[in-house]
Design brief:
Number of helices: 5
CATH class: Mainly Alpha
Bound molecules: heme C
Mean pLDDT: 90
Pfam families: Cytochrome_CBB3
Helix content: 40-55%
Order of helices and strands: HHHHH
Protein name: Cytochrome c domain-containing protein
Keywords: Heme, Iron, Metal-binding, Signal
Number of strands: 0
CATH architecture: Orthogonal Bundle
Length: about 120
């Protein structure tokens, strides 16, 4: 009986953490920023930056559609770097996961290109 309750609690815990996209974000280890986008950002923003999963369903914690060039063009790189490093509401801070220089590159080389690719 006790074991059953314990197992149920463990399962509930595992399900909760799996459902939280801000949990277990990997550190940027250098190298491929496109891969880091897929590993760390796509769970909320989508692989293509449009805030949708691979089946086209809107992701609950996307916050912004980076493929919307009209909206994206109103945003400054410096502000996007700041949000990436420091976070904002549901957007987690990445300052302990990547350097400012890497965050800057992430914005100019990956995030900006989502609008251009449309
Ligand atoms: C847990 C979900 C989550 C993850 C993971 C995540 N983001 Fe976000 N992001 C958000 C949300 C939600 C917002 C909107 C925040 C707001 O304005 O309230 C946002 C906003 C942003 C913005 C600002 C967009 C604007 O409104 O102008 C940038 C830039 C950004 N994210 C980049 C990234 C990058 C780069 C990564 C990966 C290194 C990442 N995000 C990972 C949820 C996430």
């Amino acid at each position: 009986m006790r074991r059953t309750i314990l197992t149920a609690l463990l399962l509930a815990g595992a399900t909760l953490s799996a459902g939280d996209p801000a949990k277990d974000l990997p550190k940027f280890q250098g190298g491929d920023l496109q891969k880091y986008w897929t590993d760390a950002c796509a769970r909320c923003h989508g692989v293509n930056g449009n805030g949708r999963d691979n089946s086209g369903k809107p992701l609950p914690d996307a916050g912004f559609d980076f493929t919307d060039s009209r909206k994206a063009n109103k945003k400054k790189d410096s502000d996007w770097v700041k949000v990436t490093l420091e976070g904002k509401d549901k957007m987690p801070a990445f300052k302990d996961k990547m350097s400012e220089a890497d965050a800057q590159k992430m914005i100019t080389e990956i995030v900006r290109k989502f609008a251009a690719k449309r």
